[in-house]
Design goal:
It contains twelve helices and 25 strands. It is an alpha/beta fold and 421 residues long. The protein folds into two domains: 2-257, 3-Layer(aba) Sandwich (Rossmann fold); 327-420, GMP Synthetase, Chain A, domain 3 (2-Layer Sandwich). The chain starts with a strand and ends with a helix.
């Protein structure tokens, strides 16, 4: 099935509406047409893969939409990667764009429609272990994801979505594409900077939506975020959400929409614990989350085995509890790190914590924790162990607690447990 180009439709209906930053849809469409024409002149054809090695900003959006206008497959390349890693991601591309495109007006060499079954973007996963793996996401995947998000969060024509997530990963890309589908605006930051984001959210004319991970939300709350005047939702995902953090957000009148998603499902799977429109979620006998529906990448098959653990709460909503691979087996008992991390995060001195298993000759694995304290706060390992012992079964209490200035993280902000181990 072919549909009209999302960008061309937005430019035709809302030419003067802001698309990205100060750039309006008419200008973005004009620049993207020029980018498409330039790519076509350099030999790029429909279905060819084009690497985009550009910093987050207007020029990246021009190149992204220029590729989509001519049916080229986008391969985002994270500029933070080492040269060898970037080369691995770029393998198989016809060319890599590392300079702005579309300075001149032009018309793409082919029609501007989208084939919903065709691959639009190859996104490399950002798992905490192993090399990034390419996931081919179709135009249909992105469209259904945008529709599902719209049903979950609502759409206002005045929406401006603040994106501080890397646009090389599915969370950041989904903001750029769903905004084009809706014809709404994006405020795009190259990286997360606490004070800059805080200033945006404190502005009465500021963003109406923002995507955050638990760590960045905690930093904003520590910096004084309270009752952001224009914000409809802070979409919060990327890791299990500590209840203590959600309580802090509620006390600060920050409207949080907790979400669960992954690359193979084109970002969101469930928001507020409810599966997205036309997305089906069930649990295996082992508690693994299984996903089916039109957002799932074709290569994942009819049912996506996520590798994530979950449960259904008393309201019938999905609660993510951790990763199958992260489960610690100690003395024959299973311990899910997220449960212990949530208890540690509830301690007033703790900013964040990561729990993992360590080989142990007696127990097979021992539960251990790495903790980051709040600025100026103090706590001993034994005090934190007593805090856990008062709230958890004895086998879940960390055998050891280490302290660190920060937790090691992947490019997308997930805790790199392999580095802790």
């Amino acid at each position: 099935m072919r549909v009209e180009s999302w960008l061309e439709r937005a430019a035709r209906r809302h030419p003067e509406r802001r698309a990205v930053g100060a750039m309006r849809y008419a200008e973005l469409a004009r620049r993207a047409r020029g980018a498409g024409a330039e790519l076509a002149a350099r030999g790029v054809r429909r279905g060819d893969r084009v690497g985009l090695a550009l910093p987050a900003g207007e020029e990246l959006c021009v190149a992204l939409h220029g590729c989509l206008l001519i049916g080229a497959v986008v391969v985002p390349i994270d500029l933070r990667l080492a040269a060898q890693e970037r080369a691995a991601v770029a393998a198989g591309t016809s060319l890599v764009v590392d300079e702005p495109l579309g300075s001149e007006d032009g018309r793409p060499a082919t029609d501007a429609g989208h084939d919903l079954d065709a691959t639009a973007i190859v996104v490399h996963t950002s798992g905490s272990t192993g090399a990034p793996r390419p996931v081919e996401l179709t135009y249909g995947n992105w469209l259904w994801s945008a529709l599902g998000s719209a049903v979950a969060l609502g759409v206002d024509p005045r929406d401006r979505w603040l994106c501080t997530l890397p646009p090389t990963h599915v969370g950041g890309l989904s903001i750029l594409l769903r905004s084009a589908i809706y014809g709404t605006g994006v405020v795009l930051h190259e990286r997360f900077e606490t004070e800059r984001v805080l200033a945006e959210l404190d502005d009465p004319a500021g963003p109406t939506l923002v995507s955050l991970v638990p760590t960045t939300l905690a930093r904003l709350l520590d910096a004084g975020l309270r009752d952001p005047p224009a914000l409809r939702w802070a979409l919060l995902g990327g890791a299990p959400l500590p209840p203590a953090l959600l309580e802090r957000a509620a006390a600060a009148a920050v409207p949080v929409a907790s979400t669960y998603g992954l690359t193979e499902a084109c970002s969101q799977v469930a928001t507020h614990g409810v599966p997205l429109f036309c997305t089906r979620v069930r649990l295996s006998e082992q508690g693994e989350i299984l996903v089916a529906g039109p957002t799932v990448a074709p290569a994942s098959g009819p049912v996506l085995h996520t590798g994530d653990l979950g449960r259904i709460d008393e309201r019938g909503r999905l609660v993510v509890t951790g990763r199958v691979s992260d489960t610690i087996v100690t003395g024959g008992e299973n311990v899910v790190p997220a449960e212990v991390e949530a208890v540690l995060a509830a301690h007033p001195a703790v900013a964040e914590a990561a729990v993992h298993g360590r080989a142990d000759p007696e127990w097979g694995e021992a539960v251990v924790a790495t903790v980051v304290l709040r600025p100026g706060a103090q706590a001993t390992a034994e005090a934190l162990r007593r805090h856990c012992a008062a709230r958890l079964a004895a086998f879940k209490v960390p055998k050891a607690v280490a302290f660190a200035p920060a937790l090691p993280r992947t490019a997308s902000g997930k805790v790199a447990r392999a580095a802790l181990r």
